[in-house]
TrEMBL record:
InterPro entries: Tetraspanin/Peripherin, Tetraspanin_animals, Tetraspanin_EC2_sf. The keyword Membrane applies. GO terms for cellular component: plasma membrane. The gene is LOC107703674. This is Tetraspanin. Belongs to the tetraspanin (TM4SF) family. The chain crosses the membrane at residues 7-25, 50-73, 80-103. Pfam families: Tetraspanin. Keywords: Membrane, Transmembrane, Transmembrane helix. It is found in: Membrane. The lineage of its organism: Eukaryota, Metazoa, Chordata, Craniata, Vertebrata. It comes from the Eukaryota.
Length: 204
């Protein structure tokens, strides 16, 4: 049973190694193939660089499978010990990576929350009072078809609302009347999710 298990690991490693070598050596053909895929994202071209990673992973799995198979056939304590040591190291690395990932995600989320608070506070302090700041946000909201960083509430305590008793027109696209708080609240309007998505993608 152990021989079969390690044989599968060995064959899988050899297959991954072969694909990695092909991708690394025949980059031109791969890139040419990707160019013929309609609406393919530009990031897909980065697959050409994955070959080196596949070579490393494939070689490692092949070595692990080889040690396991030889150890099972020859009943070599040395090889079996080497195999189990490698498996234990892989397990510990995976556990460590999981812990680091969880801790990092919390830290990143805290940073994103802090950024969100600062952006909202910046809108509150500068929108309507700083001409260049107001112009940049108007252009951003028009371009992304959104309302604020979070929603219309970002503008509630701004000088713009205090002075005009109205909200940016991008917050009330479904209303033909004045863009007051009632209209902004009733408007089914996307917040600037593109900006938030770009920020949140860092934590994934």
């Amino acid at each position: 049973m152990m021989f079969v298990f390690n044989g599968v690991i060995f064959l899988a490693g050899a297959a991954i190694l072969a694909v990695g070598i092909w991708v690394a050596v025949d980059r031109v053909s791969l890139l040419g193939f990707l160019e013929h895929i309609e609406d393919a994202p530009p990031e897909l071209a980065q697959l050409a660089n994955v070959g080196y990673l596949l070579i490393g992973v494939g070689a490692f799995l092949t070595l692990v499978g080889f040690l396991g198979c030889c150890g099972a056939v020859k009943e070599s304590k040395c090889m079996l010990l080497s195999f189990f040591t490698v498996v234990l190291i892989i397990f510990l690395v995976e556990v460590a990576a999981g812990v680091v990932s969880i801790l990092t995600s919390f830290q990143v989320q805290n940073v994103l929350d802090e950024i969100e608070q600062k952006v909202a506070r910046s809108i509150e302090d500068n929108y309507g009072s700083d001409e260049s700041f107001t112009s940049v946000w108007n252009s951003t909201m028009n371009e992304l078809k959104c309302c604020g960083y979070n929603n219309y509430t970002d503008f509630m305590n701004s000088q713009f609302v205090s002075t005009t008793s109205s909200y940016p027109v991008t917050c009330c696209t479904s209303s033909s009347g004045p863009c007051n708080e009632i209209a902004a609240k009733a408007d089914v309007r996307l917040v600037c999710t593109v900006i938030k998505a770009m920020s949140n993608s860092i934590s994934l």
